Amino acid sequence: MLCDKVTQSSLDQMVASGSEVVLLCTYDSTYSDPGLFWYRIRPDYNFQFVFYGDKSRSHGSYFAKGRFSVKHLLTQKAFHLVISPVSTEDSATYYCAMSTMMQVPRKS
């Protein structure tokens, strides 16, 4: 039986402010173009959308502009989040997620 799943590695990382961190996420899907997401939960329990991507587009939250990006490697089924430079405000638990059901509206 085939199933859709995401796998994160390097769950706990300590990095110095000003450095770069890559949060790893791989996925396996029966769909050819799943929607992929990064979310985070900050120490104050604030849940935030970080980034979205699929085969044709990606976009991030307002705070992600400039310092956050994704490496979407289609052939390796990877959707890694890159933060550079890291700042203390980035302290959070980050989650990679996948949707095979939802259509994200295009930006106008």
From TrEMBL:
Keyword Repeat: no
GO CC terms in record: T cell receptor complex
UniProt-listed Gene3D superfamilies: Immunoglobulins
Ig-like domain boundaries: 4-108
GO BP terms: adaptive immune response
Listed SUPFAM superfamilies: Immunoglobulin
Keyword Glycoprotein: no
Keywords annotated in UniProt: Adaptive immunity, Immunity, Immunoglobulin domain, Receptor, Signal, T cell receptor
Name listed for the protein in its UniProt record: T cell receptor delta variable 3
Organism: Papio anubis (Olive baboon)
Gene behind this protein: TRDV3
